[in-house]
Design a protein that fits this description.
504 residues, alpha/beta, 22 helices
Length: 504
């Protein structure tokens, strides 16, 4: 009975017309990403996105020059907000659209790699439910757009390579041009998109039949020179930003748990929840399964599998190597396009393994169950509640009140929710620097920055709202003047606000 049901389910899944299948995938992917897209309030990084898009495009680029990220995402979000507004949903919906589009691209990429219809559909299904992909389809940051552009460039490259076999020079040239434009856009969205270029070069080298054929192919050169040429105008800025980053960066150092943690994030949005030894064993087991699978796979199919493996692993390994040799640059969310490849690789392993159909079906169901548990973790992690804090301030603020953010890490998100009409001030012991996030408010620091709470007295305000993070901070205790009387204190998630009355 069970075997019959499984067989019927497989037939129904594969016989469904492509149009209806694709429509169903788009619908499911959209629903999964919409369900909790506004559960968490706008947080610090998203608050920065919301603030930078309030500037004209030329000023956005100017601020991006002084930041650590390229400008394309901020420009896209600026124009997007002109159409759809700046609500939480509107700001995050650009990433949502990119996330759903990325899922659709998975199908076409897998088909271009000459895998079966079943493999392509299951890979797309896994990407639809992948919790890591869902998480970054819900954030007003550049990661979802970067993943879409990398996947789109990958597909364009595969199409161009297919036309080289058909000796269709015109279409080959067109698709290499499209590839160059997409890769340039990806680089202008996130610098880590550059890591996929090494994978693309390796695969093109194989498909063209060797290094000599590759470097003599004018179409391949055209695409890559377009990407390099378009990005070259920004390259001096990127170099300068990299130099500033070396002076101090917040990314933690790598260790033996780094790669296993990343794979657990890709698979179940579950980093550090398992014993380190267990995560390492699971990673080693996956590597062994891939190795055995490759040994048992016919040679004509191996290059396509190697491509997916490289797509997933090479960017991680490059960043890992740089982090070990030079300085930490490895951070999970920067490799969202590798998470796409992870979903594809799982589908390839399952659907092409020499296993009974019932076992394959059970494995697919197992992956989906783990993914759904991961989706629940995504929802559970959405705990930021700055809006609750800001709403309290908005509703209880009085004309002679002053609002101060105790740290930069609460400045941008509170600013997003601040409707009092009062400027938000910032407590900063040192003068602001003109680079990084503070570049957005650097020009106004004389008006908004307090270097010491002692500088605020009864002539400035009768009451002070001090916004910050939960926990113990010097701006809540040691830095508070003795004549400030605590009136109220509210906490929500990891955000808090204290209201003080200044005694004469």
């Amino acid at each position: 009975m069970i075997q019959t049901l499984l067989q019927y389910g497989k037939i129904a899944f594969t016989s469904l017309s492509f149009r209806w299948y694709l429509l169903g995938i788009v619908l499911i992917a959209t629903i999964l990403r919409l369900l909790t897209i506004t559960k968490a309030d706008i947080w610090h990084d998203e608050g920065y996105s919301a603030m930078i898009i309030s500037f004209p495009p030329a000023e956005i680029i100017g601020h991006a020059v002084r930041d650590f990220h390229p400008p394309l995402y901020a420009l896209m979000l600026h124009w997007w907000s002109l159409l759809f507004g700046t609500s939480e949903l509107a700001l995050r919906s650009l990433s949502l659209v990119a996330g759903v589009a990325t899922v659709v691209l998975v199908y076409f990429i897998i088909k271009r790699l000459r895998f079966s219809e079943t493999t392509a559909r299951i890979a797309t299904l896994f990407a639809t439910f992948a919790p890591f992909l869902i998480r970054y389809s819900q954030e007003a940051r550049m990661y979802g757009i970067a993943a879409f552009l990398v996947c789109a460039a990958t597909l364009a490259m595969l199409i161009a390579l297919d036309y080289s076999k058909k000796a269709n020079a015109k279409k080959q040239l067109i698709w290499w041009i499209i590839y160059g434009l997409l890769m340039a856009a990806a680089l202008y969205t996130h610098y880590y998109a550059a890591f996929i270029i090494f994978v693309h070069i390796g695969y093109a080298w194989y498909r063209y039949g060797g290094f000599k054929s590759l470097i003599s192919n004018k179409f391949w050169w055209t695409g890559n020179l377009i990407a390099a040429g378009l990005f070259s105008t920004w390259l001096p800025v990127a170099v300068a930003q990299f130099s500033r980053v070396q002076q101090g960066y917040w990314i933690p150092p790598v260790d033996a748990e780094t790669i296993p943690n990343t794979l657990m994030q890709f698979f179940a949005f579950s980093s550090n929840s398992l014993n380190a030894a267990v995560e390492f064993i699971l990673t080693l087991l996956l590597a062994c399964l891939v190795t055995i699978f490759m040994m048992r796979t016919a040679k004509p199919r191996r290059p396509s599998i190697w491509f997916v493996i490289a797509w997933m692993s090479v960017p991680l390994l490059i960043a890992l190597g740089v982090s070990i040799i030079r300085q930490p640059v490895y951070y999970d969310r920067y490799f969202i396009y590798s998470a796409v490849a992870f979903s594809a690789l799982l589908a390839i392993l399952i659907t092409n393994a020499r296993l009974r159909a019932s076992i394959k079906t059970a494995l697919v169901c197992g992956v989906l169950i783990i993914s759904m548990l991961g989706i629940m973790r995504v929802a559970q992690s959405a705990t930021h509640q700055m809006n609750t804090v800001a709403t309290y301030v908005n509703e209880h603020s009085e004309p002679n009140d002053l609002i101060v953010s105790g740290e930069l890490y609460t400045f941008f998100d509170f600013s997003y929710y601040n409707t009092t009409g009062k400027p938000l001030h910032l407590l900063s012991k040192d003068p602001l620097i003109s680079t990084g996030e503070s570049s957005l408010i650097y020009a106004n620091q004389d008006e908004i920055v307090f270097h010491d709470l002692q500088d605020i007295n009864a002539t400035d305000a009768e009451r002070v709202w001090l916004v910050g993070k939960t926990g113990s901070h010097d701006y809540d205790t040691d830095l508070v003047p003795a004549n400030w009387q605590l009136i109220s204190h509210i906490e929500a998630g990891d955000s808090s606000v204290r209201l003080f009355r200044i005694a004469p």
